[in-house]
Amino acid sequence: MRRYLPSLSALHAFEAAARFMNFTKAADDLGLTQSGISRQIRNLEEFLGVTLFHRSGPRLVLTEVGATYYRDLALALDKLQEISIDAVRGRSVDSSLMIGTHHTLASRWLPARLGSFIAGHPEIPIEVSPALPTTDFDTTRFDITILRGAGTWLHTRSIELFAEKLAVVASPGLIAAGERLDPLDFAKFPMLQNASRPSLWLHWLRVAGLSYNGRIQGNRFAHNDMLINAAVHGIGIAVIPICYIERELASGELHMPFGEAVRSGDSYYAVYPERKSHQPSVILFRDWLIRQTRKYERIATADE
C-alpha cells in the first residue's frame, strides 16, 4: 500500500521556511529560488489540504496546524538524518551524547575539562556543536547544552553552573604587565569591539559602576576567538569573559590592568530538554558539569 507522504523536496522547503520565517532565506539555505520555495509549499498545502502559512505582505506567520506540523516534521527530519548517518558510520547517533554550547566555550573552557569525563565514561561517545540561546528545545537534537543567560528556556530543566565575569584585558606589549591603571584610563588606549556582543563595553561600564560619557569605538571582530587573538597581539584592549581566557591569563599573554573582573549579571547554565531529563547519559554529564564548575568557582574565587 502506497504511503501517504508528500515529496521530500516539499518537506525540506516547508521546514526551512518555517525555521527562518522567510522564503528568501529558506531559498538561500537550500540553494533554490524564492519562487521554487513558494511553489513547493503551495504543492504541500494542496497535498495536505490545509493552510500552513498566513501571508501578510512580506511577513509569514505559521497557522496553528502549520506550527504543529513544523514541530513534528523537524523531529522526523532529524531522525531521518540520524539513521542516514548511522548507515554511513556504522553506529547510532543515539549512542552519542549530543552537547551544545557557545562557540568559544566549546573551543576553550570545555576542552580543558572534558578529558576527565571521557576518561571516566569511555562507553559514552560525545559530539560537541555550537548552540544558540534561541535553541528550540522542543525539536533540538542536543541532549544537553551549556548556555549563557538568565536561566529561562521553555520546556527545559536548567541548573546554574557559574556566573559570567567580565574584565578589560591587554597584552603586556601594549600595557606593561603588573601596571595598574584607573579604570577610566581605558579610553586612552585603542579599543577592540565584539561584533557578536556590540554593547559589551557599555555593559562593563555599568556593572563596574563607572560613569563615562565619551565615545567608544574601535576595530570590530566577529566573535570572541578573533577578539582574544587580537588582544594577545597587542592590537588593542578588549572586554572579554574571563572563562574564555584562563590560559592567556595564566601564561601572562593577557592581564587585567584596569581592575579585577566583575559579574555581568548573566550566568552559564546546564540546559536540557524536559523530554530528555531522565536519560542516564544526560544525568551523568550534568552531574559532572556541576562538579567541574564548583572546582572552577573555588579557583576563581581564590584568585580574586
Any idea of the CATH class of the largest domain?
Alpha Beta
Radius of gyration: 23 Å
- Form type: globular
Q: Which architecture of the largest domain does the CATH hierarchy give at level 2?
A: 3-Layer(aba) Sandwich
Record the strand order, biggest sheet. Answer: 4-3-5-10-6-9
Structural class: alpha/beta
Order of helices and strands: HHHEEHEHHEEEEHEHEHEH
Measured by DSSP, the beta-strand proportion falls in: 15-25%
What report would you give on this structure?
Keywords: DNA-binding, Transcription, Transcription regulation. Helix content is about 40%, strand content about 20%. The chain has about 300 residues and is α/β, with parallel strands linked by helices. The protein folds into two domains: about 80 residues, Winged helix-like DNA-binding domain superfamily/Winged helix DNA-binding domain (Arc Repressor Mutant, subunit A, Orthogonal Bundle); about 210 residues, 3-Layer(aba) Sandwich (D-Maltodextrin-Binding Protein, domain 2). Helix 1 packs across helix 2, helix 1 crosses helix 3 and helix 2 packs across helix 3.
Using brief descriptors, characterize the structure shown.
single chain; 304 residues; alpha/beta; Arc Repressor Mutant, subunit A; D-Maltodextrin-Binding Protein, domain 2; 2 domains; 6-stranded mixed sheet; two-stranded antiparallel sheet; 10 helices; 41% helix; 20% strand; globular; LysR family transcriptional regulator
